[in-house]
C-alpha cells in the first residue's frame, strides 16, 4: 500500500508543497463547513429610493443632463404645502356635499306609505301626524284622496305623503321607484295576506332605491287590549320583527301609538336622505302633482297635456322623448322651469307675495328624431306561403265502418287500418278507403258509417240526461283542454329532467333531414361560432352596440344640449298626447329617456326564480316583463347563465337558481331591475323571477342541443356494434364525423355502417359496458321571437 501510494505522488522539486500534499486522502476531506450559528449580517437599508449602485447599473454609461426628464411624482414638498392641499380638498368635498344636501332639502321629501295589513287605516295615521303636533308647527298645503303635503318647521321637514293602492300593482311599483322614502305600516295583531305578500315581493324584487322605514302603528280606538301591549313594546317589536324577517332581515321598527311616539318618529324621518343609486341618477323622473289637457277643439281626443311636478334624478334633455308607464313615449313642446321656493322662515317672510319667475325652454323639432319602438318592417312573404290568419282550425273527425247497432263507446275500440298511417295520410278521406274494400255493397248493408266523437242518432236519452247533470256539477266547471295541456307539460318536464335533451330518432323521416340544421361540436366550451351566420330577418330591425360603455358615457354627457337641471319645479308640455292622461285615477310618473333608448335590441336578462309558482312553463311562452320603467308582453328565450361564448338552451323554466331570458326589447342602459310575471287564466299576475339586465348583446349565442341515443348490440373490447340510433345507412354516413360519448364517460367515433338497417361499428377509448348508453350530441343556434307588445292603458 505504501509503495503504490508513493508512486502516485509527485516528488518533483519544482512542485510546491501544496501540490505534494493535496494528493493525500486526509487532506481532501479537511474542508470546513460553517454551522447554523454563524453570524449573518442584515442588508443595508437604503430606504425606498434606489441606491447609487443601482442607478449606476441602470444608466449603463448614459449621462443624464440636469433638468431633463420626467418630474418625479413623489417629489418632496413642504409640510405647510401638504397641509394646505389637504385642507383645500376637504373644503371642496364639504362644499359639494353641502350643495347636494341643499338641493335635496329645497324640495319636499316624497314618502310612500305602504300598509301591510288590510285593517290598517293610513288616513288615521296621517290624522295622527297632524293632530299630535301644535297647530303652528304643522302646515298642510295640499290634500287629496291619496296625497297630503305636511311641513314640520320644528324638524325642518317638508314632506309629501302618498298612500299606495295595493290593488294597483303597477301603480305601486311606479311610485316606489320614484319615491324618496318607503314607509311600511305594520299591525302587531294581524297577519299579512297573500295578496299583500305578492305585492311586497314585487316591490323588493325591483329593488329599494329609496330609504326604508318601518312603523308599528296601533289604533287606540280599534284595539281594545292596546294598553296591555303598550306596556310590553319590546315584546311587540320582537314579534313583528320575527314575522317580517323573510322580507326584511334587519328591520328597525318604530312604535307609533300617540303623541310621544310621533316626535321620535318624525325626528328619524327628517334625518333620512334618499339613497343615490346609479339607476336613479342616470335619468330624470317626477311624480305628477297636476295635469291639464289643452286643445283647440273640445271634442278632440289628442292635444297638449301639461304635467307639473318636481324633477328629480338626472338631467332632463328637452329634445329627447319621455316615457309614461302605461301610456308610452311622447315628445316635449316646451318645459317651464320654476326654482323651488325657499324653505327657511326668514326668507319666506322676506319674500312674502313674490313668486320666482319661470323660465320657458323650447324644444327643437329638428333634433327630435322619431325613434319608434314599433319599427315597420316588410318581410316580403312569398306568394306560395299560406297566411296563418286565414287558416281556420277545425276539429278532425274520424269516420269508421262499424256493424249496425254499435254504440259510440264500442266504436271507439274498433281499430281501423287508417289509424296506423302517418300524419300526412290522415288528411285523405276515409270514404275513399272504404270504396276499395271488396264486397263494399254487401258490407254497406251490414255496416253503417259512424263519426267517432259525435253522438249517433237514436242514442239513449238516459245517457244524455246523465251527461247534462254532470255538466251542471263539477264537470261543468272543469276545463278539460287546460287540464290536458298542463298534464302534457308536466310529463314533458319530467322526461326532460330524467333524460335531458334526448329525442327519439324518427322512423318516418330521415335523421339527416330532420336534424339538417344541427351540427356536432368537438368541445362545447372552446368552439368558435360565427355570430353573423344565418341571422333571422328580425335582426334587421334592431341596433347593436360596438361598445356599450362608450355609448352610455356619451348618452350621459349633456354638454351642448338643451337641458333642465333636477330639483326644480317643472311643467312639461307634451305633444300629441291623449285626453286619458288627465283622466287617469292613479298618480302619473314620468321618466326621461336617454340617447338611443327608444330603439330596439336584444336584451339578455339575468333572473332568479322566486318560490311560490310550481307549474311547468316552456321556453318561448308569453310572459309579462317589467324592465326598468317599461312593461310589455313578449316571449322569452331561456338559456343557462354560464361563462364562455356558447350557452345552452333551456326547454323549461328552471324550478330554482339563475337563468337568462333573451328578448326583443327597447334599449335601456344597465344597471336596471327586472321583474318577470306570468298571467293566469283569470287575468292575475304571478311573480316568477326577479333580477337585473345582464347585457344588450344580439351576438350572445344560445345553442339548442339534441341528443340521439343508441345501445350496444355486440361488444368486442374497445369496438362495439351500436343500434337504435339510426335506421338507415345514409344517416350513419351523414353523422359519421360527429364524436360519440357515453353516459359512463367514454368517447368514441363511428367507423362504418353495418348493413342497411342502422347498425354501425364504433370504436371507443376504453372497454364499453353492456348497460351503457351511447349518445350523439347535435347543436343549432336559436333566436328569440319578435312578439314585443307594450302594455298600454289606452287603445
Strand content: 25-35%
Question: Could you tell me the mean pLDDT?
Answer: 77
Question: How much helical structure, as a percent, in the residues?
Answer: 10-25%
Termini separation:
121 Å
Radius of gyration: 40 Å
Can you describe this structure?
With 795 residues, the chain is α+β, with helices and mostly antiparallel strands. 24% of the residues lie in helices and 27% in strands. The strands form six sheets. Strands 8, 9, 10, 12, 13, 14, 15, 20 and 21 form a nine-stranded antiparallel β-sheet that branches. Strands 25-27-22-29-28-23-24-36 form an eight-stranded antiparallel β-sheet. A seven-stranded mixed β-sheet has the order 2-3-4-1-5-6-7, with helices on both faces. A hairpin with a 5-residue loop joins strand 28 and strand 29 (685-695). Residues 1-28, 342-355, 373-398 and 415-460 have low confidence and may be disordered.
Q: In brief, what are we looking at here?
A:
By secondary structure, the protein is of the alpha+beta class.
Present the secondary structure layout.
Layout: H1 2-8, H2 17-21, H3 25-28, H4 52-59, H5 79-105, E1 109-115, H6 122-132, E2 139-143, E3 147-152, E4 157-163, H7 169-178, E5 181-186, H8 194-205, E6 211-217, H9 226-230, H10 233-243, E7 253-256, H11 259-270, H12 278-282, E8 284-287, E9 290-294, E10 302-313, E11 316-317, E12 322-324, E13 328-330, E14 332-338, H13 345-350, E15 359-362, E16 398-403, H14 408-411, H15 430-435, H16 440-446, E17 447-452, H17 461-472, H18 480-498, E18 502-503, H19 511-514, H20 548-555, E19 563-564, E20 568-578, E21 589-592, E22 600-609, E23 622-627, E24 630-635, E25 637-639, E26 646-648, E27 658-666, E28 673-679, E29 685-695, E30 701-716, E31 719-723, H21 729-734, E32 740-742, E33 747-754, E34 759-764, E35 774-781, E36 789-790
Parallel strand pairs: 1-4, 1-5, 5-6, 6-7, 18-30, 26-30
Antiparallel strand pairs: 2-3, 3-4, 8-10, 8-21, 9-10, 10-20, 11-19, 12-13, 12-21, 14-15, 14-20, 16-17, 22-27, 22-29, 23-24, 23-28, 24-36, 25-27, 28-29, 30-31, 30-35, 31-34, 32-33, 32-35, 33-34
Amino acid at each position: 500500500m505504501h509503495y503504490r501510494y508513493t508512486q502516485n505522488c509527485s516528488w518533483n522539486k519544482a512542485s510546491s508543497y501544496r501540490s505534494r500534499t493535496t494528493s493525500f486522502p486526509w487532506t481532501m476531506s479537511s474542508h470546513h463547513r460553517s454551522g447554523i450559528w454563524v453570524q449573518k449580517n442584515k442588508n443595508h437599508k437604503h430606504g425606498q429610493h434606489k441606491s447609487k449602485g443601482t442607478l449606476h447599473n441602470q444608466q449603463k454609461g448614459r449621462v443624464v443632463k440636469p433638468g431633463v426628464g420626467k418630474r418625479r411624482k413623489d417629489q418632496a414638498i413642504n409640510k405647510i404645502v401638504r397641509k394646505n392641499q389637504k385642507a383645500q380638498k376637504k373644503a371642496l368635498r364639504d362644499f359639494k356635499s353641502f350643495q347636494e344636501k341643499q338641493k335635496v332639502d329645497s324640495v319636499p321629501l316624497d314618502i310612500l306609505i305602504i300598509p301591510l295589513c288590510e285593517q290598517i287605516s293610513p288616513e288615521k295615521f296621517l290624522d295622527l301626524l297632524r293632530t299630535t303636533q301644535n297647530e303652528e308647527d304643522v302646515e298642510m298645503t295640499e290634500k287629496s284622496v291619496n296625497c297630503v303635503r305636511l311641513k314640520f318647521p320644528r324638524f325642518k321637514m317638508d314632506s309629501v305623503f302618498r298612500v299606495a293602492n295595493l290593488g294597483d300593482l303597477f301603480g305601486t311599483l311606479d311610485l316606489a321607484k320614484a319615491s324618496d322614502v318607503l314607509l311600511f305600516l305594520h299591525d302587531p295583531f294581524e297577519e299579512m295576506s297573500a295578496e299583500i305578500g305578492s305585492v311586497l315581493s314585487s316591490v323588493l324584487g325591483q329593488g329599494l332605491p329609496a330609504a326604508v322605514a318601518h312603523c308599528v302603528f296601533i289604533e287606540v280606538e280599534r284595539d281594545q287590549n292596546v294598553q296591555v301591549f303598550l306596556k310590553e313594546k319590546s315584546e311587540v317589536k320582537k314579534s313583528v320583527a320575527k314575522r317580517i324577517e323573510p322580507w326584511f332581515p334587519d328591520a328597525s321598527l318604530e312604535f307609533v301609538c300617540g303623541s310621544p311616539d310621533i316626535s321620535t318618529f318624525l325626528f328619524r324621518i327628517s334625518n333620512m336622505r334618499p339613497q343615490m343609486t346609479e339607476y336613479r341618477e342616470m335619468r330624470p323622473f317626477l311624480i305628477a302633482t297636476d295635469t291639464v289637457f289643452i286643445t283647440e277643439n273640445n271634442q278632440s281626443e289628442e292635444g297638449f297635456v301639461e304635467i307639473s311636478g318636481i324633477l328629480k334624478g338626472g338631467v332632463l334633455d328637452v329634445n329627447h322623448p319621455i316615457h309614461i308607464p302605461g301610456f308610452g313615449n311622447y315628445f316635449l313642446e316646451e318645459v317651464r322651469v320654476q326654482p323651488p321656493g325657499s324653505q327657511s322662515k326668514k326668507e319666506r317672510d322676506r319674500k312674502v307675495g313674490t313668486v320666482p319667475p319661470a323660465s320657458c325652454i323650447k324644444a327643437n323639432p329638428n333634433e327630435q328624431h322619431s325613434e319608434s319602438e314599433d319599427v315597420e318592417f316588410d318581410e316580403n312573404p312569398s306568394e306560395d306561403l299560406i297566411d296563418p290568419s286565414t287558416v281556420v282550425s277545425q276539429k278532425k273527425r274520424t269516420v269508421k265502418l262499424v256493424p249496425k247497432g254499435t254504440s259510440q263507446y264500442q266504436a271507439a275500440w274498433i281499430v281501423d287500418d287508417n289509424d296506423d298511417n302517418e300524419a300526412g295520410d290522415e288528411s285523405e278521406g276515409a270514404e275513399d278507403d272504404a270504396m276499395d274494400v271488396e264486397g263494399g255493397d254487401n258490407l254497406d248493408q251490414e255496416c253503417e258509417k259512424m263519426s267517432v266523437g259525435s253522438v249517433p242518432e237514436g242514442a239513449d236519452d238516459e245517457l244524455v240526461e246523465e251527461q247534462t247533470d254532470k255538466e251542471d256539477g263539477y264537470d261543468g266547471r272543469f276545463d278539460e283542454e287546460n287540464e290536458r295541456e298542463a298534464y302534457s307539460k308536466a310529463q314533458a318536464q319530467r322526461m326532460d329532467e330524467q333524460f335531458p335533451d334526448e329525442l327519439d330518432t324518427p322512423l318516418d323521416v330521415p335523421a339527416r333531414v330532420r336534424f339538417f340544421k344541427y351540427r356536432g361540436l368537438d368541445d362545447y366550451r372552446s368552439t368558435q361560432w360565427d355570430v353573423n351566420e344565418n341571422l333571422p330577418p328580425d335582426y334587421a330591425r334592431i341596433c347593436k352596440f360596438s361598445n356599450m360603455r362608450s355609448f352610455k358615457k356619451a348618452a350621459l354627457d349633456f354638454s351642448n344640449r338643451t337641458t333642465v337641471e333636477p330639483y326644480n319645479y317643472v311643467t312639461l308640455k307634451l305633444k300629441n298626447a291623449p285626453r286619458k292622461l288627465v283622466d287617469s285615477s292613479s298618480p302619473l310618473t314620468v321618466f326621461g329617456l336617454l340617447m338611443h333608448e327608444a330603439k330596439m335590441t336584444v336584451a339578455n336578462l339575468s333572473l332568479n326564480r322566486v318560490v311560490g309558482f310550481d307549474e311547468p312553463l316552456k321556453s318561448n311562452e308569453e310572459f309579462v316583463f317589467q324592465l326598468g320603467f317599461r312593461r310589455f308582453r313578449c316571449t322569452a328565450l331561456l338559456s343557462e347563465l354560464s361563462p364562455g361564448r356558447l350557452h345552452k338552451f333551456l326547454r323549461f323554466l328552471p324550478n330554482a337558481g339563475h337563468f337568462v331570458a333573451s328578448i326583443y326589447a327597447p334599449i335601456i342602459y344597465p344597471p336596471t331591475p327586472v321583474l318577470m310575471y306570468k298571467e293566469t287564466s283569470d287575468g292575475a299576475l304571478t311573480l316568477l323571477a326577479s333580477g337585473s339586465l345582464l347585457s344588450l348583446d344580439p351576438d350572445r349565442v344560445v345553442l339548442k342541443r339534441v341528443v340521439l341515443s343508441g345501445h350496444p348490440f355486440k361488444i368486442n373490447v374497445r369496438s362495439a356494434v351500436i343500434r337504435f340510433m339510426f335506421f338507415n345507412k345514409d344517416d350513419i354516413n351523414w353523422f359519421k364525423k360527429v364524436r360519440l360519448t357515453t353516459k359512463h364517460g367514454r368517447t368514441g367515433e363511428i367507423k362504418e355502417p353495418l348493413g342497411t338497417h342502422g347498425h354501425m361499428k364504433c370504436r371507443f377509448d376504453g372497454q364499453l359496458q353492456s348497460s351503457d348508453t351511447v349518445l350523439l350530441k347535435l347543436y343549432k343556434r336559436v333566436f328569440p321571437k319578435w312578439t314585443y307588445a307594450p302594455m298600454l292603458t289606452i287603445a
